[in-house]
Amino acid sequence: MDAPLTPPDTLVRPWRLATLVASLVAAVELVGLVVLGFLLLAKPLAHAIQHRAATSGAATTKPKPAAHHLVKPKSIGKPHHTRAHTGVLVLNGNGRAGAAHVEASRLQSLGYRIRGAANAARSDYATTVVMFRPRWAAEGHRLAHDLHVSVVGPLDGLRTSALHGAQLVVVLGAR
User: Which residues touch 114 (CB under 8 Å, ≥6 apart)?
Assistant: First the structure.
């Protein structure tokens, strides 16, 4: 007697199941390799990025006001110059169009002599900073008080020729 013929569907189904299982195993292996590669490369890559950021030019041009804003204005003394005799340069460090001119108008209404309003070299300042030339610390703290700014420090990252005769600089930040 002849053996009955098996239907073609039963011959195909085991092959499909084997293909699906093999594909699933390959996908799990791929995910495992990606995770393993990430774990092996993440730490050295993070160290390389930190080292690059520390040695880049952008990291060295940031103002260093954190240590200076701790100086109490009382220990500096009273301002020797009036607001009208204090030149201020206003720089937009937040990227919002027209922010420096708006702030310059406000400072002029308070009596300050505005020496210029322009964009800062960077537009990613998080907070507003007041900087002062040597011997103008008291006036710098007065300006910071007028603006309700807590970060005050000596000039950093600006050449005297870029001040246009100003003794104080306000770099507007996002806050």
Answer: 87, 88, 89, 90, 104, 107, 108
- Give this prediction's pTM: 0.57
Each residue's pLDDT tens digit, 121-159:
888 888 999 999 888 999 999 999 999 998 898 887 777
| 157, 62 contact by CB (below 8 A) | yes
Strands 113-119 and 152-154: unpaired
- Tokens 């806050």 correspond to 175
Tens of pLDDT, residue by residue over 43-94, are 777 777 777 777 665 444 444 444 444 445 557 788 888 999 999 999 999 9
Q: For residues 95 and 131, give the distance between their C-alpha atoms in angstroms, rounded to a whole number.
A: 19
Q: How far apart are CA 14 and CA 66, in angstroms?
A: 70
Pairing of strands 168-172, 129-132: antiparallel
**In sequence order, what are the beta bridge partners of 169?**
89, 131
Orientation of helix 137-147 relative to helix 99-109, angle to 10°: 110
In angstroms, rounded to a whole number, what is the distance separating the alpha carbons of residues 91 and 94? 9
Q: Are strands 87-92 and 113-119 parallel, antiparallel or unpaired?
A: parallel
**Counting beta carbons within 10 angstroms of the beta carbon of residue 150, is it exposed (0 to 12), middle (13 to 18) or buried (19 or more)?**
middle
